[in-house]
Amino acid sequence: AATADADGRAGEAAGEAPTWASAGVPAGLAARLAELGAPSPSPVQAKSVPALLEGRSVAIKSYTGSGKTLAYLVPVVARALAAAAEAAREGASPGDGGPYAVIVAPSRELAMQIVREGQSLLGRRAGDDGHRMVQQAIGGASMPRQIDALRTNRPLIVVGTPGRLADLSREGSLRTHGASVLVLDEADDLAADNFAEPMGRLLAHVGKNAPGDQGRQLVLVSATLAQRTLEAAAAAGHADIELVAPGAAGGASVGAGERAAQAGLGESLPPNLTHAYLVVPRRHAYDALRRSLRASGVSRAAVFMNYARRLPDAEQRLQAAGVSCVSLHGGMDKIERGNALSKYRRGDVDVLLLNEVGARGLDVPECDGVFNLELPADGRHYVHRAGRAGRMNREGLVLTIVDPAEAFVVNKFERELGGDVRFMEVVLREGELQEVTREMKAEALDARRQQREQRNAGGGGARAHHSEVDDAEADPAYGYRGGARAGRGRGGRGSGRGAYAGRDRGRGGGGGRGGRGEYGDQLSYNAHAREGGRGGRGGRGGRGG
Question: pLDDT (tens digit, 9 = 90+) per residue, 277-335?
């Protein structure tokens, strides 16, 4: 197969920056792109657009936020308008034989985002409303209204979710056999087992009788590109699909695509992200999140959890703690989901709570921080979450809050991501997120030694009390990786004080038990320590505080 950038334009050959014109985009559409704030193509757009304008099947693999949607939408719109103009010259009406292109997305949010971008590109053209040229077909919306819109508007482009598109195709309202283009956005997700039945129908029917010698054009789009996705494309008759990927020399065979799919996932991440993790027992995760949101300085955050059923409770807990947030999950209807996203985009709330379903393709340029309140399943899911921040080369933070027993997973992610991706451990200290340094660790070891010496010496005639916390890494300077706690007694009762003074009852070093401690700045723990460990029990003195 020819490479996706083998026919580079003269301007690029001369070392000039690529333009929409050099990519082959018609002047009118290029002017519209400039009006929309995209005066020139991004690197992935400059590589993808020429191949797609020529009708070649392409797999686009690029980090989230690099401009993949426009990379395929611009050529799809350009070719659809050209086909409509040709049909008009022959006396036919645009869309008479069904849509020119069908775009499939795994989530309603992503589908509607694509619809809005397509409608913006078309605008109002020659007295016709471009909004009617792009039609949504998503689950959760009224199917009778969708059927009526398909019949009335005869759109050039239909964008939807797999189940609803398959239902409309089966019902006969959506005529797909003559479609020239099939786009699978977030192709890895669409290859999942839960989409097997509707995707099987769409792959078999969309473009079955596409006009021209080339037949149906297939476009795969993903920040990550799994081997099984390319295998599915080959099984559907696109074994020669071309690859456009960061650092790739262009499209190649499926074999080359497999090698790219198996390469480090780090290439799929926006380049200006900082990756960090904070070790804290699960029971303190919400408070750690609240304080991290404030300490990080991010203006708009996306917080990820694994299960939709936990999101409403998380929303209530964070709101009760003073965090301005809203959740986005599958249990909400179309209006509720739209309202939640609108609040976040307008800045009415600073934090969006969501799970994997809401992560796919969600485009919120204002987001500059991603917080994993629960660990993603693997590196590939980490990439999809992290990509919500740092879009279009902006800077962003990705902070993973992890229980001590699961801290090893961070190293696993680092290996899976490969490349130059590094995770730094941080602690909450003096209201800031600070990187754990060697000096901090040295101070921690020294503090632990001093604590043991003080404990062994006893105090005030009190007998020493040994427990598991004696062997924990109780590090005042570093954030109490041991989870050892010392209360600070009130009125002189209980003299001990640790770097992490917890809400649970601690112990003083003598003269009675320490009272309920203050909540300290440090939230970093070791998996081997038991919370609320005893540091020493005094004699007859009363309880502190």
Answer: 999 999 999 999 999 999 999 999 999 999 888 999 999 999 999 999 999 876 777 78
Domains by residue range for the chain, with CATH: 23-263 (3.40.50.300), 268-442 (3.40.50.300)
Whose CA is closest to 293, among 397, 364, 381?
397
DSSP string, 305-354: -S-GGGHHHHHHHHHHTT--EEEE-TTS-HHHHHHHHHHHHHTS-SEEEE
pLDDT at 501: 36
391 and 369 Cβ atoms separated by less than 8 Å: no
User: What is the pTM assigned to this prediction?
Assistant: 0.68
Give the Cα separation of 311 and 305 in Å (integer): 7
Enter the tokens of residue 510.
Answer: 């003598």
In the prediction, which pLDDT does 454 show? 87
Non-local CB neighbours of 232 within 8 Å, separated by 6+ positions: 191, 203
CA distance 75 to 80: 8
The single-letter DSSP state of residue 166 is H
In one-letter notation, the amino acid at residue 466 is H
pLDDT for 124: 65
What pLDDT score does 249 carry? Answer: 38
Low-confidence ranges of the chain (pLDDT < 50): 1-14, 126-127, 248-262, 460-545
User: Are the C-beta atoms of residues 485 and 433 closer than 8 Å to each other?
Assistant: no
CA atoms within 13 A on the CB side of 101: 31
Containing H/E element for 147?
helix 143-153
Answer yes or no: are the C-beta atoms of 526 and 404 closer than 8 Å. yes
In this structure, what token pair is assigned to residue 523?
Answer: 């939230």
Report the pLDDT value the prediction gives residue 348, as an integer from 0 to 100.
Answer: 94
Element (H, E) at 171: helix 162-171
| Residue for token pair 């694994």 | 306
Question: What pLDDT is attached to residue 390?
Answer: 82
- Tell me phi and psi for residue 435, to 5 degrees: -70, 140
Cα–Cα dist 187/166, whole Å: 16
**DSSP state for residue 542 in the 8-state scheme:** P
Decide: helix, strand or coil at residue 42. Answer: coil
Q: 20 burial class (0-12, 13-18, 19+ CB within 10 angstroms)?
A: buried
What does the mean pLDDT of the chain come to?
A: 78
The CA radius of gyration of the chain, in Å to the nearest whole number, is 28
User: What b-and-e string marks burial along 199-233, b requiring 16 or more CB atoms within 10 Å of the CB?
Assistant: bebbbebbbeebeeeebbbbbbbbbbbbeebbbbb
Nearest of 390, 54, 41, 62 to residue 224 by alpha carbon:
62
Contact 69, 105 (CB under 8 A): no
3-state helix, strand, coil in the chain (%, to 5): 40, 15, 45
Nearest in space to 94 (alpha carbons), one of 104, 76, 80, 108: 80
pLDDT of residue 125: 58
3-state secondary structure of 275: strand
Look at the block and give the residue holding tokens 């333009």.
Answer: 19
